[in-house]
Amino acid sequence: MSATGSSNTVRRPSRSGLAVLFGALVSLLATLLLGAPGASARPEPTTSGATTRAAAPAAVPAAAPDAVPAAALTEVTGFGANPSNLQMYLYVPDSVTANPAVVVAVHYCTGSGPAMYSGTEYASLADRYGFIVVYPSVTRASKCFDVSSPQALRRGGGSDPVGIKSMVDWVTRTYSADTGRIFATGISSGAMMTNVLLGDYPDVFAAGAAFSGVPFGCFATTDGSEWNSACSGGTVIRTPQEWGNLVRAAYPGYTGPRPRMQLWHGTEDDVLRYPNFGEEIKQWTDVLGAGQTPAATDSPQSGWTRTRYGSTGDRAPVEAISLQGVGHNLYAYGMAARVLTFFGLDSSGPGPGPQPGACKVTVTTNAWSTGLTGSVTITNTGTAPIEGWKLAFTLPSGQTITNGWGATYAPASGAVTAANATYNGTIAPNASVGIGYQANHGGNSGAPTAFTLNGTACSVS
Q1: Where does 124-280 show beta strands of DSSP type E?
Q2: What is the spatial distance between Cα 345 and Cα 421, in angstroms, rounded to a whole number?
Q3: Structural domain count, the chain
Q4: Among residues 170, 191, 198, which one has the least CA distance to residue 120?
Q5: Does the pLDDT value for residue 263 go beyond 80?
Q6: Annotation marks residue 95 as catalytic
Q7: Does residue 374 share a domain with residue 319?
Q8: Pair 208, 184: CB distance under 8 Å
Q9: Structural domain of residue 147, as residue ranges?
Q10: Of 204, 232, 263, 366, which has the fewest beta carbons less than 10 angstroms from its beta carbon?
Q11: Calpha distance 251→244 (Å, rounded)
């Protein structure tokens, strides 16, 4: 009997029907529990429209409840603080390593995380080397990342950088990622965000690679606009120290190691004009204490000019590649592999990059009521001689250098770089150089707590 009108009479299922229904429910529950991803992650369709699913990565513990399907671009939701409503897409290779490295690949204006996934080789390189790729995706109408607002240009200030930091934290928790091997790279708007991420979170990112970007803080606006015409036109020109101060102001008081930077730009860029390339070089060489004079210049490919600052190897503090006659859309196949070389990820394990201990610094101070002297000994603990050096450190608040010996010091307060004198520029393996300074102080007579030599973090005693 079927229900009619307002009657609440319903057909009672037969016993056999209930048995069939129960069996179907059991089957469905088994499928959901054993085969489906958690509610926080859903696989993205492939280009054919079919959804790719794969077994969980072998290196990820089975107990990790949020681990996503391997070898599939997957959207992750509920990953943490996300004030600007970014989307997070993740690629975890089948061969993900234990304690993997993480590469954050940031898209261009009008782009998306899935577009960055399909238009670059980072996922296929992850298959080869076992790292994880995060693809942030903008949801605002412009599809451009916020690199302009005061919130974006301050550590923990809000907007897109906070959301991206939450994505990194989620991956670190879920996959026990190596916090010493977190990297950022991006194209155009993503390159600008790469500069911002390295400025806001120097303690999170080990290095970055920016394709057609602008310096940190160059695009800053105060009227809510996303676009800065003076910056895009290449007319914002500052000294290295002024650019460096913008980065240092993003995280006041930070004295730890700073991330290395690789910069790419085309000489015919008509969107973010070529002078921005030189301004980026000024900024990051100042931040890393690498000096404005290249340590090496070569041409790895026809029409390319590569300059390295601070050292000559593949993992120099700053590496800059200029492409003659190339416009804004310079990214091409093969460049991602060069990024991985700079990051030190083109091997099965951590690369041989600068690690604390390649140099050692011993520092002591002798203070009186309003002044002090600081004695610094720099030891080369590596196996090759150091030819020309710059020692970067931050003086405690209230200290100002009035005199120095063994090096030239600039500026006199804040983030200081000590450059070698004409007679002590070479430090042989296991040899040391002594320098020092006299300074005024306003009550804090302490010594600097962290030093980098040509961009390499030194151990301190």
Answers
A1: 132-137, 182-187, 207-211, 260-266
A2: 36
A3: 2
A4: 191
A5: yes
A6: no
A7: no
A8: yes
A9: 41-343
A10: 366
A11: 12
